[in-house]
Structures are given as structure tokens and as C-alpha cells.
Write a structure and sequence with these properties.
Elements: H1 5-11, H2 15-29, H3 34-49, H4 60-83, H5 90-101, E1 106-110, H6 113-121, H7 125-131, H8 136-140, H9 145-155, H10 158-168, E2 177-181, E3 183-186, H11 192-202, E4 206-209, E5 214-217, H12 227-253, H13 259-268, E6 281-284, E7 303-304, H14 306-324, E8 340-344, E9 350-354, H15 357-368, H16 377-392, H17 395-405, E10 410-412
Parallel strand pairs: 3-5, 6-7
Antiparallel strand pairs: 1-2, 4-5, 6-10, 8-9
Helix pairs in contact: 1-2, 4-15, 12-13, 12-14, 12-15, 14-16
Length: 414
């Protein structure tokens, strides 16, 4: 048994991979204690969260029940707090809360005028028909252009979206971007059917247009326990995701000849294949591959996922805000996004249990809807990302390396 055996089981990989990786990286950074320190901290965080229960002898079902009760209690507290804020309805109150809790506020984005220009060059016929408009000018007389843009992906065909993206996103320059605040839009009642399609497909009511610096909220109430806390954390996550991509836009705009290629790759979420990785290279994975294929080989090699960084920061905003408010007890979830452990089921089998806030809100919602799905993919990605952060010297250095190497698709310790 190696020192990394438990960690290997959590990540679903041979612990030899971790030991070999640690040996090579330790030589380069001049430290040999990172991996063991990481393993020890994971264990101690589990111990602390389970309130002095011995994790090695706590049945998996009991752990899940402890976490479910924590989510239920903290979500009730958050709903009670948000309900007292100013706003005409619950959605406006959530927007107010997120705006106050988010620690990033602005960035570099495409000028809003280009949303209108794209629509005029490529009139979305399904949107026009849905809204009963005869032209884009007619449509935009009474509609916000960002709301129209948010509806495109659910009313227009994949072919239309692909062709529009390739044609209209291939010629932007530095003059087409500007610094402005991140904007939050609550879709109006005329988009109710579109909003329902979005929620039915995505299972949450928040999304974003990162190139325009917009977060939009579909005003569809989801009353299943767990979903309010889940979507509030997602809201805060998007602030940080938009801010991060804004930094990449600024970096790539300097390279005028290759900007459009890099810009489109960012918005597509391109991920390099893992087969060409060298011994000390970490793959950059800018999406949750697990949702498409839980057996994707890129999930089982050293990789860093910027999504995990955005989630860590969004959940941190939430827990910091909770720490300042006596009626919200969310600080107990602080820095748990990467924490996970193996626990024994009643039948003697073993299961990975995530201590991440988002995984647990999703697991609770599934449980309340009669499902049995136990989510852990946020935690696994966060654990890889946290380990990378520990090796390089912290989150700020990790972000610096991500921005520096994003277009390469890998980060090399060599």
C-alpha cells in the first residue's frame, strides 16, 4: 500500500500514477511533502465535517444522511434570508443577493452592439416566429437584445447556431471589446416557454453569455429541496467564470493574427486529447467531461479544470457571505469542494462520497425526487485541480499558469 492508496481510490486511478507523478514533480519544485499533506488534509476535513464521527467506521448511508440534513438546514436559512431582501419577486431578490455576495464585478466583453449586428446578419427565424415579429428591428423595439440571444440555443437549430458562430465570430478585434460590469438579466414573461425548455434540459435556471458578460436567470421556480442553494451557488460561479474568460480575451487580443481562432476555441470549450501527455504535463480541461462520458480517459490523467476554480471561488463567496450573517450558517462548507472519501455500503460494497456543496445539493434534489443518484463529479475534478494548486503554490499561481498555457491545452512542470 502506498501513501496515496486512499487518494487513488477517490480519483478512480492506480495510486502508482500519483506516486510516480509526485516523485517527478517533487524533484522540480524542491518539496516532497505536498502529496502527503494533501492526503492528510482531505482526511481531517472529512473528520471535521462529520462532527467527530470516525470516518473509517461510518456507513455510507449515514454519511449521506448527515450531508442531506446539512444542506436542508442551510438552504432553509438562505431562503429565509433572501426572502427579506428588497425585490418584487423571489428572482429579483436572488439577483440582489448574488450581486452583493459576488467578489468580482466587471471584465472585458464584446460590445453589446455586436449582439444586434449578429442578429441582423443572421436573422433567427424561429425566434422571430416565436415572438411574432417580422424583422430584427421589429423584434428589438420591445426586447432586450441579450434576452433574445439567450433564447437562440433553444429555438434555433444546431446547424443555424454552428453556421452563425463560424461566420460571425471570426472577425472580432480589440476595438470590439470594452470594460464594463457583469450584467444580470431576468428573462421576461414572454420568454416563459423558452425558459421552461432551458430548465427541462439543463435542470437549473441560470446560464450565461460569457462573451457579453451576461448572466441570465430563467424565472422558473424550482421548489425541490436542494435546488435553491444549488442554483445560488451556480449564480456566483458564473461571475468568476465570466471574469476568468475576460482575462483570456484580453490576453488573446494582443495576438491579432490568431485571436479569432483562439476566441472561438474558448467559447466552444475545446479540450486536447490525453494520449500525447508527457510525464509532468497536466491537461487543461475546461468543461465537465463526466457529463458526456464518465469513462472519458482524460478524467483519469493529471489535469486541472478551471471550472473547479470558478466553483471554489463561487462557493467561497457564498460561505464568506454566510460567515458575516448570523442567520446563515454556510461557513461549514468552506473549502470542501475538493474533499471526498470512500465509505462502505450496507451490502459491503464501497462508494465515493463527495463533500462538495454543489454535488450534495444535486444529490439531495435527486433524493427528494425519488432518485438514487449520488453526484461526485464536481469533487473529483476539484480534487485534481486542488492538488495542482498545492504543487504550484496556490490558487493565484494556478490561475496565472492557466491563463499563460490555456491555448496550449497543457501545463508542463518541466
Amino acid at each position: 500500500m502506498t501513501t496515496s492508496s486512499d487518494l487513488g481510490r477517490v480519483l478512480g486511478i492506480d495510486p502508482y500514477i500519483l506516486d510516480n507523478l509526485n516523485e517527478k514533480i517533487s524533484e522540480r519544485i524542491g518539496r516532497s511533502d505536498v502529496l502527503q499533506g494533501f492526503i492528510d488534509k482531505n482526511r481531517s476535513m472529512i473528520q471535521k465535517t462529520l462532527d467527530v464521527l470516525d470516518p473509517t467506521h461510518t456507513p455510507a448511508g449515514e454519511v449521506r444522511e448527515i450531508l442531506r440534513k446539512k444542506i436542508l438546514r442551510h438552504e432553509k436559512q438562505l431562503i429565509g434570508f433572501v426572502s427579506k431582501l428588497e425585490g418584487d419577486d423571489e428572482f429579483e431578490k436572488v439577483v440582489k443577493f448574488a450581486s452583493e455576495a459576488a467578489t468580482v464585478k466587471s471584465g472585458l466583453f464584446l460590445k453589446k452592439e455586436f449582439a444586434e449586428k449578429i442578429l441582423k446578419k443572421r436573422p433567427p427565424q424561429n425566434v422571430l416566429k416565436y415572438m411574432g415579429a417580422t424583422s430584427i428591428d421589429d423584434l428589438l423595439k420591445g426586447q432586450d437584445v441579450t434576452e433574445v440571444f439567450s433564447a437562440l440555443r433553444f429555438l434555433e437549430s444546431d446547424l443555424w447556431m454552428h453556421e452563425t458562430f463560424e461566420q460571425e465570430y471570426s472577425h472580432f478585434t480589440a476595438d470590439d471589446f470594452e470594460e464594463r460590469e457583469i450584467e444580470i438579466k431576468v428573462l421576461g414573461p414572454e420568454w416563459q416557454e423558452v425558459a421552461r425548455k432551458f430548465v427541462a434540459k439543463k435542470h437549473h435556471n441560470v446560464s450565461h453569455l460569457k462573451e457579453f458578460g451576461v448572466i441570465f436567470l430563467n424565472p422558473i421556480a424550482e421548489n425541490v429541496p436542494g435546488k435553491f442553494l444549488r442554483d445560488t451557488a451556480l449564480f456566483l460561479h458564473y461571475f468568476h467564470e465570466i471574469s476568468f474568460y475576460s482575462k483570456l480575451f484580453a490576453k488573446y487580443l494582443v495576438d491579432k493574427d490568431n485571436f479569432s481562432v483562439k476566441f472561438k476555441a474558448l467559447l466552444r470549450g475545446d479540450v486536447q486529447e490525453a494520449k500525447n501527455l508527457k510525464g509532468t504535463e497536466w491537461l487543461i480541461v475546461q468543461q465537465y467531461l463526466w457529463k458526456k462520458d464518465p469513462k472519458d480517459p482524460r478524467l483519469f490523467v493529471p489535469h486541472v479544470n478551471p471550472e473547479s476554480m470558478h466553483w471554489a471561488r463561487g462557493e467561497r463567496d457564498l460561505t464568506y457571505f454566510g460567515a458575516l450573517e448570523p442567520d446563515i450558517d454556510l461557513e461549514g462548507w468552506h473549502d470542501l469542494d475538493w474533499v471526498g472519501g470512500i465509505f462502505e455500503e450496507e451490502d459491503g460494497s464501497e462508494s465515493l462520497i463527495s463533500f462538495d456543496l454543489e454535488d450534495n445539493t444535486m444529490t439531495l434534489a435527486s433524493f427528494m425526487e425519488g432518485g438514487r443518484e449520488n453526484f461526485n463529479y464536481h469533487q473529483r475534478e476539484a480534487m485534481w485541480t486542488k492538488l495542482f494548486s498545492e504543487y504550484v503554490g496556490g490558487e493565484d499561481k494556478m490561475e496565472e499558469l492557466l491563463i499563460e498555457n490555456f491555448d496550449k491545452g497543457v501545463i508542463n512542470f518541466g
